[in-house]
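# step 3/5: fold
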Amino acid sequence: MTDPTPPPKPLNVQAELARERNRAAAERTLMAWIRTSLSLISFGFGIDTIVSAIRTFQATEAIDSVRFSRIFGLAFILLGIYAITVAVIEHQQELRRIQRNADYFYTPRRSLGLTVATALIGIGIFAFVGILVRAFR
């Protein structure tokens, strides 16, 4: 009697080790984005906390500077939330690509680092202009 199931393919050790290296690299990348996002969120929270503390000690109310600082802090928090969300989604997609039985090929996609850097440039310009306007009032 013959067995209808074909014999299993021989294990390609080099391909499996390459997959494991790619998976480990994806994990390291996710951890780096988690650290970056946590720093952005903490920085935004810190700005808001410091401004709130200064505001309680001021005799005069500086509404414009408080509102500006709140928006500035919230921008960092939102950027951190965006970065961690996109990093998790990209990590899951990368793991699915690695797990496929087909050959693993690089597919170009938008850089999360470039997106976050561009957003930081925007936040920096916003902060610079806001401080510049306040300086010449």
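# step 4/5: annotate
The mean pLDDT is 83.
# step 5/5: archive (pending)
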